[in-house]
Automatic annotation (TrEMBL):
Name of the protein in question: MaoC family dehydratase
InterPro entries: HotDog_dom_sf, MaoC-like_dom, MCH/BMMD
Pfam families (UniProt xref): MaoC_dehydratas
Source organism per UniProt: Ramlibacter albus
Domain MaoC-like residues, every copy: 17-118
Length: 152
């Protein structure tokens, strides 16, 4: 996990995550937990016959949750809270077996008056193993400033 604080980030910085393969188990557990019952997520035969995807796809919110985990690895324990997650765009369906990675671009930052925290604005893009962008969104995160070594 990263030990970056807000002070270590600058506009234009780009960080890339590890890869993560979306499994059948991920989709089953997520749809069960969220109570999702759309056939495109849970019924392979329906999805093969009645969609252009050739089978089931991953729920977009599962893709978003996986991106959140990848962001945590990049930004680490200096992240205090997500203040805004906006402009979700799902551009290519994610299928079981796809391997995803996230890319975070820092678009700006500002310090808060207490001198201990600040706000980072960024853009997150998620790509599959074919380098197709499958998802993107904007974020505003509250982050700690200064040393974060004692947080890990």
């Amino acid at each position: 996990m990263s030990n970056r604080s807000l002070d270590d980030l600058n506009a234009g910085d780009v960080f890339r995550s590890y890869g993560r393969t979306v499994t059948e188990t991920d989709i089953v557990l997520f749809t069960s937990l969220a109570g999702l019952k759309l056939p495109i997520f849970i019924n392979e035969e329906f999805a093969k016959k009645h969609t252009d995807y050739g089978g089931r796809i991953c729920p977009g919110l599962l893709t978003a949750a996986l991106a959140a985990g990848m962001m945590e690895e990049i930004l680490g324990p200096a992240t205090i809270a997500a203040l805004e997650l906006t402009d979700f765009k799902f551009t290519v369906p994610v299928r079981p077996g796809d391997t995803l990675r996230a890319e975070i671009t820092v678009e700006g930052k500002k310090n808060l008056s207490d001198g201990k925290r600040g706000i980072m604005q960024g853009r997150v893009r998620v790509f599959n193993q074919r380098e197709q962008q499958v998802f993107e969104f904007s974020e505003k995160l509250m982050m700690r400033r200064g040393r974060v070594d004692d947080l890990v």
